[in-house]
Design brief:
Layout: H1 2-31, H2 37-60, H3 73-96, H4 103-133, E1 144-148, H5 152-163, H6 165-168, E2 170-175, E3 185-186, E4 189-193, H7 198-204, E5 209-212, H8 219-229, E6 235-238, E7 256-257, H9 273-280, E8 284-288, H10 293-303, E9 309-314, H11 317-331, E10 337-341, H12 347-357, E11 361-364, H13 371-376, H14 378-398, E12 403-407, H15 418-434, E13 440-445, E14 448-450, H16 456-465, E15 470-472, E16 478-479, E17 481-483, H17 484-497, E18 503-506, E19 512-513, H18 514-524, E20 535-537, E21 557-559, E22 565-568, H19 575-588, H20 595-604, H21 611-617, H22 629-632, E23 635-636
Parallel strand pairs: 1-2, 1-5, 2-4, 5-6, 8-9, 8-11, 9-10, 11-12, 12-13, 13-18, 14-17, 15-20, 21-23
Antiparallel strand pairs: 3-4, 6-7, 16-19, 18-22, 21-22
Helix pairs in contact: 1-2, 1-4, 2-3, 3-4, 9-17, 10-11, 10-17, 12-14, 14-15, 15-19, 15-20, 16-18, 19-20
C-alpha cells in the first residue's frame, strides 16, 4: 500500500512538471529563448487552475491507477486521449484568461506533454524488461518452456512468463504449423518448428514444460498435438478450449494440465437453444436420479433455461443435497428448485409425486448401472431398473406428462449382463407405452461417460494415487466414451426432437482400448509404465464383454438434423403382452433363487446371452471393427 502511494505521488509530481514544462519548452522554441514578460506573467496567473484541471482529466482517464509495469496498447491510448482532452480544455481556459499565443505553441506544447507523461509511465515497463532480461541478471533456468501456438494466446502467455521468469522459467521458443512463421521471431522468441518437430525440439533444447496455446483448435487436431507432446518427457499443460475462457482473456492461471478428455477428440455440442427452450423454459421439469452423474449434469444444463420448476428426485440424499446447493449458489432465487427424496420402486409414492407436481417433462436417469454388482444381485437390477422405469413411465402416461426421456445404455444391445438386459426391457416399456399414450416417450442410448460414478477413469486415478497396479480386465477390451456434459446436452437435444417411440442413438465416435486409456493416464500423471506404475490384466468380470454395440440387428438407423444424434428404428412392442409378462416376472422376483429369473429375462430379451459364451465367439485375432454410425445411417428425418 505504501509503495503504491509513493508511485502515485511520483507520477503526480512528474505530471505537474510535464504540464508546465511542456508549454515553457514550446514557448522557448517559438520565441528562440525570449518569452515576453507579460505572457509569462499571464501564464503564471493561470498555471494553478490549468495544472489542477489537467491532473483531474488524467485521473478521470485512470492514469494513476494502471499497472504501468504491464502497460500495453490500451494504456498508451489512454495517455494519448487524456493528453488531447486535457490540452483542448487547457487551451480554451488559457485563451479565456487572455493568454493568446500562436496555434503552433499550443500544438507543440501538447505533443511535448503527451510525450513526457507517456514516457514516464512506460519507463516502468522498460526498466522492468531490462531488469528481467539484461545479461548481468541472467540465470540458469530450471524450467525451459516450449509454447505450441504463436498466435494471440501463445504470445500473451509468452509475455507473461517473460515478465515473471524467476517464477515460471524461460520460454525457449514457439512451435507453429503456419509456414510463413517458421524460424521467424515473435516478441523476441523464435518459432523453432512445426507440430511434427515437437519431439526433436524438446530433446534438442532440453525442454521441461510444453504449453499448448491453441484454444480454438479442433478437438481432432488437439488430440494429435497432445499425442506428439506426450512422446517427450516434458510436462504438458494446456490452455482450455475457447468456450471455457469466459472473459476472453488468457493468463497463466487459465492453464491446466492435460486431461484424458483432451485425448478423446470429442467436439463441443452446440445446443439448438430455441428448440430446447421451447420445451423446457417456463415448464415443470422432473429428473429422476437427479443426484447421479448424468442426472446432476442434466440439472445443471436444464437450469440454464430457467424452467418454472426443477424437481430433483433421488433416493440418495447426499448427492441430491450437493447438486441442490450447487444450483442455489449459481442461481439463488432465480431458480425454483425442489428436491424430493424418494425411490422409483415405490409405485404409490411415485404416482402421488407426479400427480401433485404435474411435470411437463420427465428425464428418467435413475438406475443401477454397475455391471458386476448387478450380476451378483440380479433381482435388485430388475426391481430398480425395470419396475422403477415402469412406475415412473406409467405415472407419466396416467397424468399427462408431455415428454418422457429415458437415459439408456449401449449395454442394452445384445446384452451379456443383467444390467444391460434390464435396460433393454426398459426400452421395450418406453416403446410399448409410446404407441398407447399421448406422452412422447423416448429413450436415449449411449456408451460410457468419463468421470461418472462407476467409470473406469476415477478407478484408475485412485489406483495410480495408491502406487498401482492399474487393473484392466482384458488387453483388447474396447469401449465408447463421451464426456458427462456432452452426454447430458445430447439427451436434452434428443428430447426436443422426439416424436414418441424412438430410441435415439448417440454418436460415440471411435472406440477406445481400455488398456491404451490406462497407459495415457499413467503418462498424464507424469509417471512411466512398468517403472512407476504397472498394468495388471485380471480377466473379464461377470457380465462383461470385450466390446459394446450401439444398435441391434433388427434396428435400422436414421439420421436426424444433428450429426451426433441418430434414431434406431422402433421395434414393434405389444405393451399389454409385455405388461402381462412383467407381472409374471414380478412374481418370480419373490422366489429365493435366481435361475428362473434369468430364464424369464432371456425369454423377454431373446438377445440376452451369457458373456463368456459371447466373448468366446469374438476372440481377438484381429482388431475389432469400430462401429460406424455414419455408415449405417441412411434416412434423414
Amino acid at each position: 500500500m505504501v509503495t503504491k502511494i509513493k508511485k502515485q505521488v511520483f507520477l503526480l509530481i512528474t505530471d505537474i512538471l510535464a504540464v508546465n514544462g511542456a508549454f515553457l519548452i514550446s514557448w522557448l522554441l517559438h520565441t528562440e529563448g525570449n518569452i515576453p514578460y507579460r505572457i509569462l506573467i499571464s501564464y503564471v496567473g493561470a498555471a494553478l487552475i490549468l495544472t489542477i484541471g489537467k491532473l483531474l482529466v488524467y485521473k478521470q482517464f485512470g492514469l494513476y491507477n494502471s499497472l504501468w509495469a504491464y502497460a500495453s496498447i490500451e494504456e498508451l491510448l489512454k495517455v494519448v486521449v487524456a493528453g488531447i482532452t486535457a490540452n483542448i480544455l487547457g487551451t480554451i481556459y488559457l485563451i479565456s484568461m487572455g493568454v493568446k499565443l500562436y496555434f503552433g505553441v499550443y500544438l507543440i506544447g501538447a505533443i511535448f506533454e503527451i510525450a513526457i507523461v507517456g514516457s514516464i509511465r512506460f519507463s516502468y515497463r522498460f526498466f522492468r524488461r531490462i531488469k528481467n532480461n539484461y545479461p548481468i541478471n541472467r540465470q540458469e533456468y530450471t524450467n525451459n518452456i516450449l509454447i505450441v501456438g504463436s498466435g494471440a494466446s501463445g504470445s500473451l502467455i509468452a509475455g507473461e512468463i517473460k515478465s515473471h521468469s524467476k517464477t515460471y522459467g524461460q520460454v525457449i521458443g514457439f512451435i507453429d504449423d503456419e509456414e510463413h512463421k517458421l524460424y521467424k521471431t515473435i516478441g523476441g522468441i523464435k518459432v523453432l518448428g512445426n507440430y511434427h518437430d515437437i519431439y526433436s525440439v524438446t530433446h534438442r533444447f532440453n525442454i521441461h514444460e510444453i504449453i499448448i496455446a491453441l484454444p480454438s483448435s479442433t478437438t481432432a487436431s488437439m488430440k494429435q498435438i497432445i499425442e506428439e507432446c506426450n512422446r517427450s518427457e516434458a510436462n504438458v499443460r494446456i490452455i482450455p478450449d475457447i468456450h471455457e475462457i469466459i472473459d476472453g482473456k488468457v493468463s497463466l492461471s487459465k492453464i491446466r494440465d492435460v486431461e484424458i478428455e483432451d485425448l478423446l477428440g470429442r467436439d463441443m455440442v452446440n445446443l439448438n437453444v430455441s428448440e430446447v427452450a421451447n420445451y423446457i423454459q417456463d415448464k415443470v421439469i422432473m429428473i429422476t436420479g437427479g443426484g447421479g452423474s448424468i442426472g446432476s449434469e442434466l440439472c445443471r444444463q436444464i437450469a440454464r433455461f430457467l424452467p418454472s420448476k426443477l424437481i430433483i428426485l433421488d433416493v440418495y440424499e447426499n448427492n441430491a443435497y450437493d447438486i441442490q446447493n450447487e444450483l442455489l449458489r449459481a442461481y439463488g432465487d432465480e431458480l425454483n428448485l425442489d428436491v424430493i427424496i424418494a425411490s422409483v420402486r415405490d409405485r404409490d409414492n411415485i404416482f402421488s409425486i407426479v400427480e401433485e407436481h404435474a411435470p411437463h417433462v420427465i428425464f428418467h436417469a435413475a438406475a443401477h448401472k454397475h455391471v458386476p454388482l448387478m450380476e451378483r444381485a440380479p433381482k435388485e437390477a430388475i426391481k430398480n431398473n425395470v419396475f422403477g422405469t415402469k412406475n415412473v413411465a406409467e405415472a407419466a402416461h396416467k397424468f399427462g406428462v408431455e415428454r418422457f426421456v429415458m437415459v439408456s445404455t449401449d449395454k442394452a444391445v445384445n446384452p451379456t449382463n443383467i444390467m444391460g438386459a434390464s435396460k433393454r426391457i426398459c426400452e421395450m416399456i418406453i416403446q410399448g407405452l409410446a404407441k398407447e399414450s399421448e406422452t412422447k416417450f423416448t429413450a436415449v442410448r449411449f456408451g460410457n461417460v468419463l468421470g461418472s460414478n462407476g467409470s473406469v477413469i476415477p478407478l484408475f486415478k485412485k489406483q495410480i494415487e495408491a502406487g498401482g497396479p492399474i487393473t484392466v480386465t482384458h488387453k483388447e477390451i474396447i469401449r465408447y466414451f463421451m464426456t458427462i456434459s456432452e452426454a447430458a446436452q445430447l439427451v436434452i437435444q434428443s428430447g426436443a426432437i422426439a416424436k414418441g417411440g424412438e430410441t435415439f442413438v448417440l454418436d460415440m465416435g471411435e472406440p477406445v482400448k481400455i488398456y491404451d486409456l490406462a497407459v495415457d493416464l499413467i503418462r498424464l500423471s507424469g509417471l512411466k509404465l512398468n517403472e512407476d506404475i504397472k498394468i495388471k490384466i485380471t480377466g473379464l468380470r461377470p457380465g462383461e464383454k470385450l466390446y459394446e454395440e450401439l444398435l441391434m440387428d433388427e434396428e435400422g438407423l436414421m439420421n436426424t438434423n444433428y450429426e451426433k444424434i441418430h434414431i434406431g428404428q422402433p421395434i414393434q412392442i405389444n405393451y399389454r403382452e409385455l405388461k402381462s409378462t412383467l407381472n409374471e416376472l414380478l412374481i418370480i422376483l419373490k422366489s429365493p433363487e435366481n435361475e428362473s429369473l434369468i430364464e424369464m429375462i432371456q425369454d423377454i430379451v431373446p438377445t440376452y446371452r451369457n458373456n463368456l459364451e459371447v466373448n468366446n465367439e469374438n476372440k481377438y485375432t484381429k482388431e475389432v471393427e469400430p462401429y460406424k454410425l455414419s455408415l449405417e445411417a441412411k434416412v434423414l428425418v
